[in-house]
């Protein structure tokens, strides 16, 4: 087979592609170059097939997915390590040989009648020693377009192959087409969905879903599940974290990484507009951070992604103008509503919906309908370089130095607005004890409390007990003064009427100011049983009526919280590191007195 450009420097890659062609039997094969012309051609192809709607926003398109293919499918996601113990109790596991046989049966001939696209891509800035390369093979043009935004995809990525290493990924919607058979608008195969990772092989197989992280294999599959295994083996961290820069009025700058479960405000925080004069927030990344120690003993982080894949409902010009400007052009929208003038709409965009809307189900939407016009997990895919508050250091090859790490979740009670860990080990315990009320980004009942350690529960590619131990070990590799300070935040406390106590969005800068000051050993604080809490925050221009409630440690509720933690940590049995066993015991003493 003849390619349009040379990649003969990597025979393993050629063999991977040729073997996949033989297995999947596509009608055509296209090696993606990552050019603007290629992108435009695929967009036009999908418009011509009525699979995409061209919007009035420049170079932007709307897609409606199959109603059965709207979110991550954790129940169909597997970590197929050689030993079951290495997958751990929080991952689904099948013996690799058995899973490979099942996958090969599913993938055999699965691309008949379709074009197979070969996508070489780079995670991280070109030339960075922190960057990694992957090749995704897919039969979905929608995936090609999305990966062209989310990664550095195309010819240039092939030059980043170091020592021949790359992460191979095979994806198929799982719907072969017989000759003359008409395609559906959103091909998928929900009955046979599988998203499978082979950690020892560093490989990914995904079948049956065309949506989000199930299909964009550079995202959660590579950048977290496979990368977390690479990080364990190579001595770094691959995390479900945003990265932002904060500059104070005196011009001093610090970088912060923060881990929140999906739909808990990562993108809003990373792209916020400060309400405090002189304070500025800038974006490095809104979802994933790869962090390594540098020669100076500090953690430096890169964002391995090149785009943003965010949840739509709730975003508005009032609450997040930076995102609204970012998605004004060159954006793919999925499962939002369509207006009469070929623009998009979602709940929260405006106070009142437009008169004429087509819902994400492709049907006329009537005001007052109990069914939302946009799906709760509707998404945008957009180039990160369009974000107005993008940090100038976004593509620094060495990354940016991390001064603080934040953990948090969506909790209507119990957890205060912000508190600081006593030390690194206690901070790891805070990360391991993250829990959040479930959102629409994952399967399951909305609002139900879900333990999500480090916000990595769906994304850790190995035993989470070993993952906790890896975090503890990282704290021993440098001096304590060079480690990031660790904090826990909760923007989502509610009063007895169900109203949020904290305004959030741009007002979060008041919490970030205290964190910024604590990194320098400044800022007022008091020691409590759960950590260091601020005595007060900068509430200039904002009512402080709720501050005492927001910073209150409710001991009866924390007694229940300790019991919850004990029950959750019991899942890991003998795999829970002694350091966390000790931290749980000490918390119980401080809360319960025994």
Produce a short descriptive summary.
The mean pLDDT is 95. This protein folds into three domains: 11-52 and 73-235, 3-Layer(aba) Sandwich (Phosphoenolpyruvate Carboxykinase, domain 1); 238-306 and 391-592, Phosphoenolpyruvate Carboxykinase, domain 3, CATH 3.90.228; 308-386, Beta Complex (Phosphoenolpyruvate Carboxykinase, domain 2). The chain has 594 residues and is α+β, with helices and mostly antiparallel strands.
Write up what this structure looks like:
With 594 residues, the chain is of the alpha+beta class. It folds into three domains: 11-52 and 73-235, Phosphoenolpyruvate Carboxykinase, domain 1 (3-Layer(aba) Sandwich), CATH 3.40.449; 238-306 and 391-592, Phosphoenolpyruvate Carboxykinase, domain 3; 308-386, Phosphoenolpyruvate Carboxykinase, domain 2. It has 16 helices and 30 strands. Strands 11, 12, 13, 14, 15, 16, 24, 25 and 28 form a nine-stranded mixed beta sheet that branches. A hairpin with a 5-residue loop joins β12 (242-247) and β13 (253-259). α2 packs antiparallel against α5, α11 (424-432) packs across α16 and α15 (555-569) packs antiparallel against α16. The termini are far apart.
Mean pLDDT level: 95
N-to-C CA distance: 71 Å
User: Portion of residues in helices?
Assistant: 25-40%
Question: Within the CATH hierarchy, at the fold level, what is the topology of the largest domain?
Answer: Phosphoenolpyruvate Carboxykinase, domain 3
Number of helices: 16
Low-confidence stretches: none
Which class best fits the helix and strand makeup?
alpha+beta
Give the CATH level 1 class of the largest domain: Alpha Beta
Rg is 24 Å
Question: What CATH architecture of the largest domain do you see?
Answer: Alpha-Beta Complex
Largest sheet: 9 strands, mixed
Number of strands: 30
Q: Which oligomeric form is depicted?
A: single chain
